[in-house]
Amino acid sequence: MGCGIGLQIAVLLKTGGTSALRLTAAEYQALLARWTQDAQALESARVKLANAHADLAKERERREQAEAEALRAGVRQDTLEQLLAQLRPDRADSSGTNKNPATK
């Protein structure tokens, strides 16, 4: 295909088609400039996407750590509530005797 374009250019030059050749060259330059801009825009989008993925990974890690900490806090709360229930005097005991050995 490259030879075909070279041949077309040679024919254009021989037949006085310099204005057509100039137009083709101008179109080529415009396309090349557009391609360069698009390539830069694509690279910029790739960088933004990579940054977004990194931010997402950090946020996911923070969320997982917060969920784990919340779970640990819930377990501590349950344990402390059970301990507190064991240490409270038995209010349901109407005989006046305290069944909780820790409060004797």
From TrEMBL:
Record's keyword terms, sorted:
Coiled coil
Ranges in a coiled coil: 25-69
Region annotated Disordered, chain positions: 85-104
The annotated regions of Polar residues compositional bias extend over 94-104
Q: Which domain of life is it from?
A: Bacteria
Q: What is this protein called?
A: Uncharacterized protein
Give the source species.
Stenotrophomonas nitritireducens
Its organism's taxonomic lineage begins at: Bacteria, Pseudomonadati, Pseudomonadota, Gammaproteobacteria, Lysobacterales
